[in-house]
């Protein structure tokens, strides 16, 4: 019983944090990123950055200022190509809106190696599921709501994080259903 109560407290705290994240407007997000101390030149000298800023602006609907601040937040010089990361997410069924939210909430994702790190994680998450295979829409829903799941290093930790995220989403949907149909759950 105490673990259930503790889980409930965590659930409430996590839901509060999630609601705060969605309450921020794009301008507030842009100002939060603009205070980054890391400075990356967006000149022609660095491969892929101009295209990435352009892609973030045109395809994902982000403001130029927000896209530039996301690129400044991460160092793209020595890591994987961010364009491959964006293409990989698109190939796994993520919409441009979902990719924009993921990149805004977890800009370090752009520095991951799409082929060696991100691809296997997405395949692992897609293969998860006890009774039924995880569908592409379930994968996109979980990663969109919990983008830092893609930063987890070990398969076991990734599996635990995935199961926790899945339970949070299930509880959130149950709560929304109870809110929409209160008479069904009323005690008689």
TrEMBL record:
This is Uncharacterized protein. Belongs to the mTERF family. InterPro entries: MTERF, MTERF_sf. PANTHER family: CGI-12 PROTEIN-RELATED, F19K23.4 PROTEIN-RELATED. GO terms for molecular function: nucleic acid binding. Keywords: Transcription, Transcription regulation, Transcription termination, Transit peptide. It comes from the Eukaryota. SMART domains: Mterf. It comes from Microthlaspi erraticum. GO terms for cellular component: cytoplasm. GO terms for biological process: DNA-templated transcription termination.
